[in-house]
What does this fold into?
Amino acid sequence: MRAVPIKCVPENADDIKRNCADMSSCVFRTAFSGADAMTDTKELLQKIAALRTRLSEPAVPATADPVRAIEAKVERGSLHNAMLESALRHADPSPVQAALASFRLTARGIRLLRQGREMLQSLRTIADDAEFQQADEADAIALWHREGMAMIEVILRTIQAMPASVSAQLRMCDGLEVVLAEVEERVSRLHSNLAQRKHQAARIDELADYLRALASKQPVSLTPLQGLADLILDEARGAQPLRFLYAAPTDPSRFAAAHSLTVAQVLARLIFDCSEWQAQAQLAVMVALVHDVGMTRVPADLLLTEGPLDSEQRRLIEKHVVIAEAMLLPLWPGGGWTIEAAACHHERNDGTGYPLGQQEIHLAPFVQLLAVCDVYAALCTQRPHRPAFDTRTALTETLLLAERDYLHKPSAERLLLLSFYPVGSMVELNDGAVARVIATHPGEIGLTHPDRPIVHLIADAQGQAIEWPIVLDLCEQKDRSIVRGLKAEERQAMLGKRHPQWM
Ligand SMILES: [Fe+2]
Ligand SMILES: [Fe+2]
It folds into this structure.
């Protein structure tokens, strides 16, 4: 508001005399000294009336002066400011309110402050999430959260330190809004990542409960197992990433469930479009989900052993296939390959397997295929005594085992359909670019070109992020090839910054 030089308008001669004694014209002193005084008084009253009229006129129209227009907005914003201050005081005492009381923010600044507070609340909610609290400091979502909190702090502290100048505030808002948009993006991706983790954890819990019920001879229905198998097959048909799930052996049922889910995912990708298996695909995946039900009875401390096992420990672990048959018979009372799969998936063609350990043992084709998926899934996942193998090494190792007649060779070769780098893998190309595998080739092409899947470029040879989606079929791009899969820490560094939802 423009400064007013006179504090009040005089209403009568006494007021005029009292309030305007310091006026420079001196007419007031002479107004009461004689006849002329009446004229002077009249003139004075006219001047005062004119002054009163001028003061009562509206100020310069707001639209005529942009600065004045912004100032008017600030005036209006002060009301919202007070309201926000009140709301914040109730929500969470903070130095922000103190700052708000001491200066005026533009409406844009207030909106920014409100949005910043909302993002802060979202980040706090994420921090309270049980799934989030399981992430260690190096986890991508922990990093994203820390950076998001830091950016919000910058926004809120900068708002507190904003200068009184409206134009300066608006310039600062330009920058702060960009930072806020980045935080919003991160919050959105954090939610997406957490939802995915919860989904996986819930799936592990669901199967672990089912396995526990089976192991304890409680009555169970095939329906939930069928539903889970259908979901896994749908994911395979939809070229969803192959996720190597892991649960700590401290809970043997969850440990067995996570492993079995991985085996089922691998198997589903090998059979979903195979005419030989299509009619029994659902049943095959169901069997994969329960093949290690006997592991629920292996003591946790034995599963956690990091060193070599003695003979007694090995006997206890090998027992899981012996007890599985009785646990699964209520599901498939007629027996057949479904039961055989649980009982014999550790038998080996060269007689080195268990529990029978016979050479030239005749195993049903599905049992041979399940054994291959079981070995590959186990190699790709960490164990207390070793880290996870990268997918190319795991596939090569499995093929070598088949080459030595340890596993069924034609079944092992079907793993090539996954490619050396299954969907979801991060890879480095020969020109230094980084890409994510998004699809593999079916049929003969997939079997003969396991090193040439279809990829989505993430970063160019200089490590710069590629904003536009570029998809390459490496079977057609003969001058480009994959030189290696990225390790977990490299993947974290690459995806954790921009795509934690893909971690
Ligand atoms: Fe097993
Ligand atoms: Fe297994």
In short: Strands lie at 426-429, 434-439, 454-459, 471-473, 482-485.
